[in-house]
């Protein structure tokens, strides 16, 4: 019998010890009445009840003490926690620091760390740590693989206990900003900034505020036309400017503490400044000025490219687009504009180079956008722990300056000394019982938050924490599951598209193979395979994309001999007979990696089956079902990719395996 309506993911607080001595909470300089402090203490109560069967008491006597002290020497939203036999002291300079400190204590207690061994000082790496929902108001979720929206249904909004739990999960990993609606703003969603929805948005905003989270909305750039009855939405038109100013005044009055707008303009059919011969900077700055009086910000997406390309055209390169559209206006974006840049120049593929716009801009606020919704990485059916990929992105040296030049430096604000900086993820949640479709996909949800708060954490540390908090199992089983997570991205990459070329997915759906699915389409996503080789020439002899990087990256990417092999086909058209560093030819690598990837997917499924006795039976069954689908998917990929390239190249597999 299922008592709960939804799972508690990593906040299950399973019993770790029998020491059920009660706790007294003392607050110095923070008020227990403060909404965030109040939530923190309530959470602490939940935690110690679950972990120890203990409670919070006002009595002295034989109790542990959690003492919360205001300490202005601690960084914004940071904390310091120090335990001793009699309890724990938590220091913070603000309320978010208090709640993050409490969650940190609970993480330690959950990992069975003794009170006297608790000692941690933390400050967020990134000022903005955001989730982007692609939830539509009819309840559907664009690229959602975990059920329907838990905010919207039938063009209306809902707030309930589940929303509160959602806010708890987000605060527990340090998220401080959430955009609740899809960046493709149409129909009813355009009205989220009107009286029709203000009351409900405010209700949701209040719940978020209890957990130190600011609410943001995606807006429709054509709102002046659709809501205001204006003829145009030209960002330099006086009427349009006045409309956005009045609208923003209203929004911030109705929603005190509101964060600002997220904007997808001139992208995939969305309206934008280009219609009027204006620039992206014109659009962003006009909105920024409208929200500036209220401390609001404009998050402007850089996912702008020509999506009506002709596959015959070898000059136009989608990868170039972000840099080409945004770089020239570096320094012209207003202070409260932040450009949101996808990690790669294409679109959340399993392997892409890092977007050259990150660090290409040196005078502009930048927010890194990643996707934990597994649109191109297995739909939360296939296991694909993405934190190792995000670490690669963060660690990438852009060479934009002599020091502090990694993506982590840029998006944290260290490179330029700016305050408006951070990371955002397209979220992978929905109203499924377990929130993320595949129970194991919650590792990406947890992991993104933890990483955005502390970019120094390793993929393994994060995986271990998540496993320990989520499951109640022995050390050997924890090791096994952690290992499965850590290998999973590489396995997925092996059985799907090779060496950075990307795509080859079933069009529109984006799950399962279709090697030529997008080859003759308008989307600019080609692999250019012929009977001699495969890959896109993006060197100076091709589209010139490699030149968008600083040296030495530009030269390395430009030269197939120096190009990192995992990106070889992204940057170069390579013959099947090309020798890789391993000594394998390219075609043999394609065969080998696909056979290996499929075999390793089967091994993952077997590893999961070996955990049957230590995992809750419902969780076990849900995940096992997904591994079966993953194995079938991996087989399909293996056989379609291998057959396709065998037929193109007419070169046999050296190992004589079955190719169709
Ligand atoms: O990759 C594409 C997705 C679209 C998405 C778009 C974007 C929200 O297929 O579904 O639209 O990216 O990032 O705007």
Question: What does this molecule look like?
Answer:
This protein has 17 helices and 17 strands. The protein is an alpha/beta fold. The chain has three domains: 9-122, Chitobiase/beta-hexosaminidase domain 2-like (Chitobiase, domain 2), CATH 3.30.379; 128-470, TIM Barrel (Alpha-Beta Barrel); 495-536 and 573-649, Alpha-d-glucuronidase, C-terminal Domain. Helix 1 links the parallel strand 1 and strand 2. Helix 6 (238-254) crosses helix 7, helix 11 (442-453) crosses helix 12 (459-470) and helix 16 (586-609) runs antiparallel to helix 17. The protein binds 4-O-methyl-beta-D-glucopyranuronic acid. 4-O-methyl-beta-D-glucopyranuronic acid is lined by residues 134, 142-143, 183-184, 264, 303, 347.
What would you call the structural class? alpha/beta
Strand residues, percent: 5-15%
Contiguous low-pLDDT stretches (5 residues minimum) are: none
Order of adjacent strands in the largest pleated sheet: 6-9-10-11-12-13-14-15
- Identify every distinct bound molecule in the structure, by name, code or SMILES: 4-O-methyl-beta-D-glucopyranuronic acid
Overall number of strands: 17
CATH-level-2 architecture of the largest domain = Alpha-Beta Barrel
Assembly category: single chain
Assign the CATH superfamily of the largest domain: Glycosidases
CATH fold-level name of the largest domain: TIM Barrel
| Alpha plus pi helix count | 17
Q: Name the overall outline.
A: globular
Q: In CATH, what is the class of the largest domain? A: Alpha Beta
Q: How large is the radius of gyration?
A: 25 Å
Rounded mean pLDDT is: 97
Q: How many structural units, i.e. domains? A: 3
């Amino acid at each position: 019998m299922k008592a709960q309506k939804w799972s508690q993911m990593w906040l299950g607080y399973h019993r770790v010890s029998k020491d059920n001595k009660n706790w007294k909470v003392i607050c110095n300089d923070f008020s227990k009445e403060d909404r965030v402090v109040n939530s923190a203490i309530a959470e602490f109560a939940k935690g110690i009840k679950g972990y120890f069967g203990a409670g919070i008491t006002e009595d002295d006597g034989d109790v542990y003490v959690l003492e919360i002290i205001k300490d202005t020497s601690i960084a914004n939203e940071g904390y310091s926690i120090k335990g001793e036999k009699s309890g724990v002291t938590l220091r913070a300079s603000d309320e978010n620091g208090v709640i993050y400190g409490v969650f940190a204590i609970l993480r330690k207690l959950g990992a069975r760390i003794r009170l006297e061994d608790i000692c941690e000082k933390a400050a967020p790496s990134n000022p903005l740590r955001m989730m982007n929902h692609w939830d539509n108001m009819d309840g559907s979720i664009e690229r959602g693989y975990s059920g329907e929206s838990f905010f919207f249904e039938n063009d209306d909004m809902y707030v309930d206990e589940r929303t509160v739990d959602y806010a708890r999960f987000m605060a527990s990993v340090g998220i401080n900003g959430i955009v609740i609606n899809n960046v493709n703003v149409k129909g009813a969603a355009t009205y989220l900034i009107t009286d029709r929805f203000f009351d409900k948005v405010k209700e949701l905003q209040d719940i978020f505020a209890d957990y130190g989270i600011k609410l943001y909305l995606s807006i429709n750039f054509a709102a002046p036309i659709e809501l205001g009855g204006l003829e145009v939405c030209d960002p330099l038109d006086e009427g349009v400017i006045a409309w956005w100013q009045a609208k923003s005044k209203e929004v911030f009055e109705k929603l005190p503490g509101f964060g600002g707008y997220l904007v997808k303009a001139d992208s995939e059919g969305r309206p934008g400044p280009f219609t009027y011969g204006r620039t992206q900077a014109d659009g962003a700055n006009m909105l920024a000025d409208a929200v500036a009086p209220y401390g609001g910000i404009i998050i402007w997406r850089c996912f702008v490219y020509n999506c009506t390309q002709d596959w015959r055209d070898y000059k136009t390169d989608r990868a170039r687009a972000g840099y080409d559209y945004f770089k020239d206006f570096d320094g012209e974006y207003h202070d409260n504009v932040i450009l949101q840049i996808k990690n790669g120049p294409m679109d959340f593929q399993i392997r892409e180079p890092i977007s050259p716009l990150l660090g290409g801009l040196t005078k502009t606020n930048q927010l890194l956008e990643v996707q934990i919704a597994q649109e191109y990485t297995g739909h939360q059916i296939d296991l694909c722990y993405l934190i190792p990929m995000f670490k690669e992105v963060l660690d990438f040296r852009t060479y934009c300056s002599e020091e502090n030049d990694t993506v982590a430096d840029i998006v944290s604000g260290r490179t330029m000394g700016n305050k408006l900086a951070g990371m955002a993820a397209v979220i992978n949640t929905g109203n499924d019982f377990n929130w993320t479709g595949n129970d194991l996909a919650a590792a990406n949800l947890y992991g993104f938050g933890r990483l955005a708060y502390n970019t120094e954490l390793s993929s393994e540390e994060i995986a271990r924490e998540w496993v320990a908090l989520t499951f109640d199992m022995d050390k050997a089983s924890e090791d096994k599951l952690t290992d499965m997570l850590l290998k999973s991205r590489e396995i997925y990459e092996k059985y799907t598209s090779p060496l950075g070329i990307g795509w080859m997915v079933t069009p529109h759906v984006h799950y399962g193979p279709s090697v030529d699915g997008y080859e003759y389409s308008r989307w600019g996503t080609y692999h250019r395979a012929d009977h001699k080789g495969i890959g896109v020439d993006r060197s100076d002899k091709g589209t010139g994309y490699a030149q968008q990087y600083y040296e030495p990256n530009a030269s390395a990417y430009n030269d197939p001999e120096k190009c990192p092999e995992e990106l070889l086909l992204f940057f170069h058209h390579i013959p099947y007979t090309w020798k890789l560093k391993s000594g394998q030819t390219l075609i043999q690598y394609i065969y080998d990696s696909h056979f290996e990837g499929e075999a390793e997917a089967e091994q993952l499924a077997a590893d999961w089956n070996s955990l049957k006795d230590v995992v809750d039976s419902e969780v076990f069954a849900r995940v096992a079902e997904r591994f079966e689908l993953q194995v079938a998917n991996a087989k399909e990929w293996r056989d379609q990719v291998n057959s396709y390239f065998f037929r193109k190249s007419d070169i046999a597999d050296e190992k004589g395996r079955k190719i169709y």
